[in-house]
Amino acid sequence: MTATTTAPGRPASAKPGRPLRIRRRMTPRRAGSIVLKTLVIGFLLAITVLPLIWLLLGSLKTQNEWLNSPSWALPENFLNFENYQVAWVDGDIGRYILNSALATFPSLALIVVLGVAAGFALEVLVWRGRGGVLLLFLAGIMVPGQMILLPLFSAYFQTHLTGTIWPLILTYTATGLPLTVFMMATYFRAVPREIFEAAAIDGASIYRSFLSIGFPMVRNAVFTVALVQFFFIWNDLLIALTFTSVGDFQTIQVGLLNFTGQFGQVQYGPTFAAICINVVGILVLYLFLNQRVMRGLTAGSVKG
Amino acid sequence: MNNVFGNKRAVLVFLGPALLIYTVIMLVPVLWSLGYTLFTGSVITGFEFSGFDNFAKLFSDPKVGEALLFTLKYAVILTVGQVLVGYALSLLYVFWLRKASSLVRTLVFFPIVLPTVAVSLLFQKMFEVAPQNGIVNEFINLLGMPSVDWFGSADTAFLVLVIMDIWRSMGFYAVLLYAGLLDIPEEVMESARLDGAGGWTLIRRIVIPMSLPVLLSSIIFSINGTLKVFDSVLALTNGGPGSSTTPLTLLMFRTAFSYGDYGYGSTIALLLTVICLLVTVFIFRSSRRDLTKG
């Protein structure tokens, strides 16, 4: 039972000890409360949505409109997608997005496969020292990225990986593992042990039990974890900035940062279009998966 | 059965690859980075042993002092801001909007998943003053006041940074704390109401004490994140004006990659790591003492 389903009285304005009311009459006070409520909701939605709408409208305006009319003015032509073309072609946004995808999806696949298997080994298998290993992974969540950046830069330089996509994939995989292993271990803990024992009695090897029972049972969780990691990797700046200073593998975030450096304050439209492309992709994802994203991101943080 | 679950080779097969990558790419570099603190130079110019010079320099370097102060100021103000605004929103969701809160919750949460770079650039344009007034200055003009050069002075640049990061994260903390509020047993709330507690009394005496654990973990999460602030500063102010909004992370990045001093960079990174650890342990311990007192 949650606080939202039973709602006796209105704590925010209730008189002490008011009994449960089944039906509410429309009193002036209640009407006032509805107005106030609408105002608060409206305010919250406005401060969240308005900057994004301004961004979208800005991306449709020409340079002339930008310089000669106030920045809140609506675009003259709502179907002016020229800025997008400039951003995509001249600004190389298309290539940056491809680079991001090249770095993100292999890393995600590795994180999921390795993380789920490790979670299984740490929670379902029985062996000495598994608590210690879990703690070791946990410690990785605390370490700031800056602490591993320089040695990795040296190592990639000496192994001639600098300038390829590998530094990104390897680093993202390693930094994504601690949280993934920790979350997967938690999910496997919730699966009743008897299921695995029954499978063992039926003659399934441990590999079979992982593939046919363990993995399918946490499939949902795997998707959530992958989603959380997707946002971390896709939105990352620090690692991408460090390892793509040489070569042609700038990710979308690095590209966007350079983009404004390149066009600067002069080219408003294309800059806005480039930001907008970055935002809209995430927006579409969020439109479909918002509940899962919210659950995943908050679950990933409560580890204190 | 024990044969199946105690299979040593299976442990190796399942855990081995993850542990290997984690060790090689995270654990070893951490130790390696510790080693760097005793050297000066970079991988390109070569390293030179310098003993504890880096540490001596660290404690007397005014740049580090300034960056440390900025990092702490940012972390404290933002942690208080994020958690307070988030908590206020979550109380709003649970006690006031109730079922209607679902849409608001989802929408206000959204900015946290947006790329920080994109949000920073957007805010840069919103608060812009030249060559073209951004929407914020237009609004200020509308109220009859002159435009403000937001990124021209340290204090206003800091203010924009704080506003932006609270805008980004408030919905996230609201949902985090909302989940904690829903966990308060309805019976406790009900009996408090029967005892005559309502409104603020109920919130102060029941809701806040009972949501302390989730508040605490939010604070730890928030302070750990804000101490490591990098993306939003780099993209929004690039550390400026001057070096007035440069946190330790950015100073470390510049030291290592612009000035090519990996040794000193690693020393700054170590300082940051130690601070993160100390703060987390400190919050844990002080909260435990409070619990035994209360």
From TrEMBL, chain A:
Residues 1-21 are annotated as: Disordered. Residues 97-289 form the ABC transmembrane type-1 domain. The keyword Membrane applies. SUPFAM superfamilies: MetI-like. Its main location: membrane. It comes from the Bacteria. It is a multi-pass membrane protein. The keyword Transport applies. InterPro entries: MetI-like, MetI-like_sf. It is found in: Cell membrane. Pfam families: BPD_transp_1. CDD domains: TM_PBP2 (cd06261). The chain crosses the membrane at residues 34-57, 105-126, 133-153, 165-188, 209-234, 268-289. Keywords: Cell membrane, Membrane, Transmembrane, Transmembrane helix, Transport. Belongs to the binding-protein-dependent transport system permease family. This is Carbohydrate ABC transporter permease. It comes from Herbiconiux gentiana.
TrEMBL record, chain B:
The keyword Repressor does not apply. SUPFAM superfamilies: MetI-like. The keyword DNA-binding does not apply. InterPro entries: MetI-like (IPR000515), MetI-like_sf (IPR035906), UgpAE/MalFG_permease (IPR050809). It comes from the Bacteria. It is found in: Cell membrane. The lineage of its organism: Bacteria, Bacillati, Actinomycetota, Actinomycetes, Micrococcales. It is a multi-pass membrane protein. Residues 68-283 form the ABC transmembrane type-1 domain. The chain crosses the membrane at residues 12-32, 74-96, 103-123, 157-181, 202-223, 262-284. Belongs to the binding-protein-dependent transport system permease family. Keywords: Cell membrane, Membrane, Transmembrane, Transmembrane helix, Transport. This is Sugar ABC transporter permease. Coiled coil: none annotated. It holds the Pfam family BPD_transp_1.
